[in-house]
Amino acid sequence: MGIQDRFADCRTAQEGDGSVTVTIPRPLAEEWEIEQGDQIPFFAEEGTDVAEIRRPKKDL
User: Fold this and answer.
1) Which residues pair with residue 16 across a beta bridge?
2) Among candidates 4, 2, 43, 49, which has minimal Cα distance to 24?
3) 37 contact partners, CB below 8 Å, separation of at least 6
4) 18, 37, 40, 45, 57 from 8: Cα distances, Å
5) Does residue 60 carry a pLDDT above 70?
6) Are 24 and 40 in contact (CB under 8 A)?
7) What's the first-to-final CA gap in the chain, in angstroms?
8) pLDDT tens per residue, range 34-57
9) Which of 48, 46, 56 is nearest to 24 (CA)?
10) Separation between Cα atoms, residue 5 and residue 59, nearest integer Å
């Protein structure tokens, strides 16, 4: 189904095995066709409180 109109959501971080995990909402995963093993790029700059997530690039 994917994203309908504008999308906003919140997730709770989970700790375990020396890492922190945050899930991706299903509508976003469907819209971007995210599959197990895809690498999801995150971007952030020191001193800011904003991060950016981008659609993973698929090998053709």
Assistant:
1) 19
2) 2
3) none
4) 28, 24, 18, 22, 22
5) no
6) yes
7) 23
8) 999 999 999 999 999 999 999 998
9) 56
10) 28
| The two three-digit tokens of residue 59, written as one number | 């090998």
Q: Read off the tokens for 4.
A: 């309908």
> What 3-state DSSP class applies to 37?
coil
Q: Which among 56, 5, 21, 18 is positioned nearest to 35, based on CA atoms? A: 56
Whole-model pTM over 0.85 = no
Phi-psi region of 28 (alpha: psi -120 to 50; beta: other; left: phi over 0): alpha
Rounded CA-CA distance 2/27 in Å is 4
The residue among 39, 45, 47, 46 whose CA lies nearest residue 55 is 39
